Amino acid sequence: TDIADDLHQEVNTALGNINILSEMAHLKSETDLDKSREYIEQIHTKSRNMMAVMDDMLWSISPANDSMTSVIERFKEHVDSLRSIYGQAIWLDIEPKVAQLSPNMKLRKNILWLLKSGSANMMRTGARDLHIYVGLQRQQLLFRMDFNNSSMDLLQLNNLLQRQELTKKIQEVKARLIVKQQNDQQVIELFIPV
Fold first, then answer.
1. How many CA atoms lie within 13 A of 103 on its CB side?
2. HSE on the CB side for 146, CA within 13 Å?
3. Average pLDDT over residues 63-68
4. Average of pLDDT values for 61-74?
5. pLDDT tens readout for residues 12-57
6. Residue 1 clears pLDDT 80, i.e. is over it
């Protein structure tokens, strides 16, 4: 039921945004072609993101994916995709013990969202030499990203770390987020009780 509610909210928000952008693109199509193209590009991005969200939600409720092994495989596919899109080195280290966890469906969905969102946002904001570690530490799943931030938009990174959607997910899973920086190296750690 919670996942259905999440999907309903995601679809409504995305379709509302797409509807507004398409109206604006239509209005600007005769007077400001560049602005109209910009709105169409935003529609394209939002619809692509919505398809990814729906795919993850449908994936998470399938009984065939009812294990952490499936979550790990899905995340590995995501990291491979990031490598291809950004042409950057990304190292991924997942402790074998993580596959033995058996969180409920909602927690698995949220863990996958946090892993995918965190890694994708680091790449979007210009992280280099991204090292991702997923392991266990005292009854908590540890998701750590260590990266070079010298070419990043640090204001955008800060905004991403403070956005409402991330804060809500962190509170929902009762996680703890720690951000450390030393010169051009930055570490972001997320501890999720399991």
1. 23
2. 8
3. 84
4. 87
5. 888 888 888 888 888 888 888 888 888 888 888 888 778 877 887 7
6. no
Rounded distance between C-alpha atoms, residue 185 and residue 180, angstroms: 9
Helix (H, G, I), strand (E, B), or coil: what is residue 181? strand
Task: Enumerate residues 6+ apart whose C-beta is below 8 A from 153.
Answer: 125, 126
- CB 160 within 8 Å of CB 105: no
Please report how the helices 68-86 and 105-124 are oriented relative to each other, as an axis angle in degrees rounded to 10: 10
Phi, psi dihedral angles at 181 (to 5 degrees): -140, 135
pTM of the model: 0.77
Is residue 189 classed exposed, middle or buried when 0-12, 13-18 and 19+ CB atoms within 10 A define those classes? middle
Token digits of residue 116: 């995918």
Q: What is the DSSP string of 54-94?
A: HHHHHHHH-GGG-SHHHHHHHHHHHHHHHHHHH---EEEEE
Residue-wise pLDDT for 143-154, tens only, equals: 999 999 888 887
Tokens, residue 162: 């403070």
DSSP notation for 16-57: HHHHHHHHHHHHHTTT-HHHHHHHHHHHHHHHHHHHHHHHHH
Which pLDDT score, from 0 to 100, does residue 160 have? 82
CA pair distance 161, 63, nearest whole angstrom: 32
